[in-house]
Every structure is written in structure tokens, then in C-alpha cells.
Amino acid sequence: MCSTPKPKRSSQGKVLASSTSILAAMNSIQRQAFAERANEASERRASKLTFKQEMNQNIHSSTKRHQLKAYKNNAKDTWFYWLLSASLTDVMQKLIKH
To answer: What is the residue-wise DSSP string for 35-98?
Structure first.
């Protein structure tokens, strides 16, 4: 059905005795030690990944909190916020000065 491209030459690679798999060249004790080290490395990678994700999430949430706090502080500094919170006498004094 699917027309995949076919190679024009057949691959004729040489099989060498040194190119066997890693685990085939080991005895059972060495294979077990290798598997334990590989599992430990995999667990370390997984824990590092989750730690990085938690740190990124904490940084992201603290950045959002900081941005929200800065926005609230900036909102208090605007003239519109002052106009809403000022008394009529303060507004009149500002208008008379300018």
C-alpha cells in the first residue's frame, strides 16, 4: 500500500565481535549491578526534573505575585485613584493652584 523509498544498494555492513550489545558481554552479576546503577541514574534524573519543575513553578508564582503587587501599587499612584479618594477641598485647592 505505502510506497516507501527503497535503497538502491543493499547495505553490507560487517559484523564485528566488538560490536555486541553491552549486556550480552556481561555475566549475570555485572548485569544486575549495571541495572541497579541505571535505575538509580534514572531516578536521579526524574527527581532533578521534578525539582526543576517545582522551582520554575515557584518562580512563576512569585513573579506573578510581585507583578500583581506592583500593579496595585501603581494603581494607587495614578491621578484617578487620588481623585476618587481625595476630599472636595483637596480637589479645589489643586484646581486653584494650577
So the answer is: HHHHHHHHHHHHHHHHHHHHHHHHHHHHHHHHHHHHHHHHHHHSHHHHHHHS-HHHHHHHHHH-
